[in-house]
UniProtKB/TrEMBL annotation:
SUPFAM superfamilies: MetI-like. It is found in: Cell membrane. It comes from Mesorhizobium muleiense. This is Glycerol transport system permease protein. The lineage of its organism: Bacteria, Pseudomonadati, Pseudomonadota, Alphaproteobacteria, Hyphomicrobiales. GO terms for biological process: transmembrane transport. The keyword Nucleotide-binding does not apply. It is a multi-pass membrane protein.
Amino acid sequence: MGRTWNNKAWFMVLPVLLLVAFSAIIPLMTVVNYSVQDTFGNNVFFWAGAEWFEEILHSDRFWEAMGRNLVFSAIILVIEIPLGIFIALNMPKKGWGVPVCLVLMALPLLIPWNVVGTIWQVFGRVDIGLLGYTLRALGFDYNYVNDPFDAWITVIVMDVWHWTSLVVLLCYAGLVSIPDAYYQAAKIDGASRWAIFRYIQLPKMNRVLLIAVLLRFMDSFMIYTEPFVVTGGGPGNTTTFLSIDLVKLAIGEFNLGEAAAMSIIYFLIVMLLSWVFYTVMTAYDAER
């Protein structure tokens, strides 16, 4: 006897599909439309084809901004992933310390991005900011407004403070899911602390680490609000990432066609790099 399928449940998904179409697909099609057209004003558009894409791909401005993005994302991953693992390993697994640590770890994630930028903008000021004033008092020539190196350090430390907690919480979730039997067997075998981490904890955290790396890469590569509030992309263009350059191009210069083409290229780069990260890490996990 054949099985009867009830497809009425799809009607419950229909509102979600309509919402996604309205909030994502329609704006994306609008961007695609702008990317292949040009205008001289008065809402009169004419076909430009791949002109804007060619201009972006041959622009030093675009490649310099993408280089800054890649460097920033690499630094963030190198710092936040090991630091998050280290903190998660040292968090208590039982007792009253567990909720206290979890709440403390979650607090930075609850602060809106523009508020984080404002906090660090004030925090780093050399006249009234605690960080800037203290560093100056200690003899350091710190000024994130004028010095490119100081601006980079400030943006990196700000991101580490804001987002390392996400890595910590993901790794901690992976650690607490490990059965006690693994630790008991390791203790009987006389395994060292490093051996326990290498052969028990790290393999059990592979899945959550994959999620952590993907999330932190995508977030760091698309970062906009925090550095824009703190440095505005300066001094000069030293902290002008692709997202900031895109906004300057679209709103500051009102070059909608070029900005639309740049946003599509930006989107494809994020998708491609995320796919590479996912493929490499899942292939490594499968080999193990």
